[in-house]
Amino acid sequence: MKSKEWLNRQKNDHYVIKAKQKGYFSRSAFKLLEIDEKYKIAIKSKNTFEFGASPGGWSQILLEINPNIKITAIDLLQLKFNHKNIHFFKEDFLNFDFNKIVQNYDLVLSDIAPNTTGHKSTDHLRISYLVMNIINLLDKILLKNGSFVTKIWKGSEEKEILKLLNKKFKNVQYFKPSSSRKDSSEIFLVAQYFNK
Ligand SMILES: C[S@@+](CC[C@H](N)C(=O)[O-])C[C@H]1O[C@@H](n2cnc3c(N)ncnc32)[C@H](O)[C@@H]1O
């Protein structure tokens, strides 16, 4: 999409306007809010790990719903706020040493997204690579019966991702928040009851 078109879309987007009014750092905040309305994941969590947390909209929602939650978050880019309950790492998770953190999360979230090329299948393969790496880390960081939510972009690898999750979780569901753009291939997978 051309930058002018993108700017126009942002200016008129209902969720961008609402995010500004509410003081959320991203319109993505509403996606987690909708996921949580249905699955009540945030209120039950004591300890959450967030992949791709910047600028910080999802962290804001987690803290709004559950002020006692502890969050460990990672992103290539800086988080836009500090909070005593957030331990943030500005790193590429692919090079991150997970041995240096406590590995007892009851909720793992990923809103991670690579830089897009505009070429649908390339972008799909790129996000799928990141998501598969995250799924491989779950055995290390997620507690038994824990939950995992990840964004994917629909495409050829989706079945493989679903297969991997169905092996590891009792319940896996697709969820498309109404705040996720209709014309986007974005969809979320909500996986619950991790079999460790
Ligand atoms: C859609 S944004 C996340 C928005 C966030 N959930 C929020 O509500 O503010 C996706 C993020 O993934 C991050 N990201 C992409 N590849 C990454 C990697 N390999 N390691 C860590 N973060 C990465 C990007 O820097 C970007 O900030």
Can you walk me through this structure?
The protein has 196 residues and is of the alpha/beta class. The chain has a single domain (26-194), classed as Rossmann fold, CATH 3.40.50.150. It is built from seven helices and seven strands. It has a seven-stranded mixed β-sheet, covered by helices on one side. Helix 3 runs parallel beside helix 5 and helix 6 packs parallel to helix 7. The model has no long low-confidence stretch (mean pLDDT 94).
Summary?
39% of the residues lie in helices and 26% in strands.
Strand content: 25-35%
At the third CATH level, what is the topology name? Rossmann fold
CATH H-level name... which superfamily? Vaccinia Virus protein VP39
How many β strands by DSSP? 7
Uncertain ranges: none
Order of helices and strands: HHHHEHEEEHEHEE
The figure for the number of domains is: 1
Tally of individual helices: 7
Properties at a glance:
alpha/beta, Rossmann fold, seven-stranded mixed beta sheet, 39% helix, binds S-adenosylmethionine
Record the SSE blueprint:
Layout: H1 3-12, H2 14-22, H3 29-39, H4 41-44, E1 47-51, H5 57-65, E2 70-75, E3 86-90, E4 105-110, H6 120-141, E5 142-153, H7 158-168, E6 169-175, E7 186-194
Parallel strand pairs: 1-2, 1-4, 2-3, 4-5
Antiparallel strand pairs: 5-7, 6-7
Helix pairs in contact: 3-5, 6-7
The chain binds S-adenosylmethionine (SAM).
